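Complex record, two chains
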Amino acid sequence: MSRQSTRLDVKKVNSELFTLTYGAIVSQLMKDYENVEDVNKQLDRMGYNIGVRMVEDFLARTNAGRCYDLRETADKIQYAFKMYLGITPALTNWSAAGDEFSLTFDTNPLTEFVELPDNYQNLKYSNILCGALRGSCEMVQMDISCWFVQDQLKGDLATELRIKFNKRLEDAIPAGED
Amino acid sequence: MSAEDVLFDMLHSEIVSYLVSKSAEDEDISILEHLGYSCGWRLIERITKELPRYKEELEILKFICTDFWSCVYKKQVDNLRTNHQGVYVLHDNEFRFFSKLSNGTQYLKSAPKYATFTCGLIRGALENFGISSIVTVEIIRMPSCKFHIQVLPSSS
């Protein structure tokens, strides 16, 4: 086969494929479960599984060392979003104690072609991100909670992901998910 | 392999493992194929809107093997064969979803799960070009695999 010059924008095709594939699995989950809460949970679980493996990839790529405070972690999370999803969320709304912050996105590649039907307002469409963050932080011995406070799909101006540091996990077997 | 590709690989394997755990042995494949189908269909809808129309079946297949494949699977299909009667065989000597799994026949039993999404992707892509087909996969030794495309006579 003769090699033709590629007329397609590889990066764009890839990100669209990713978006579409994610959309396809969300809609499959909506078919599989009757309850939207269960879909949220399943997305979170899938994200967790991805997160625990992705952190290895991240550490290998960046040579990142251990973080000594949450601000350092936040910078690394920001950088990870840039690497994996091509977006740079803003770090905002630090709590006074410095144990909570928000990631604010102007655009979210997961929701690029998405509109939520009115009756699915409880669906956390991008919940996989929460799971992925939780899973990857757990592998570096940080127990965090992560949830959406704003979502563009629900008419908010930006998408805001809140992250709360709970505790440092001790040098032991990382706690299982359940 | 770039970071974004890693992400897609991981999402793909999560989807496979979810669907396999969810459904009974013989069912899982069809849902995976369907997911691939809808992704392929939509993706082609988007990426070909600026491209000139293809006239021949072979040209479309070539497009799938070169441009489309190199976007999604980071390389072109290594070999495309046809009997000129609607049967095409795509050889990929290092299929992306297998390359991290095994080099040889270990895990061969679970290999089809990881190719089914792609079968659907090809079928969906072709469908949007107006070609109905049946796509099957043949894996003898990972990471290489062969996709068999049987074009169905058009109904119109």
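Note: Chain A touches chain B at residues 1, 3-4, 6-8, 10-18, 20-22, 24-25, 28, 32, 42, 46, 49-50, 53-54, 57, 61, 83-86 (CB under 8 Å).
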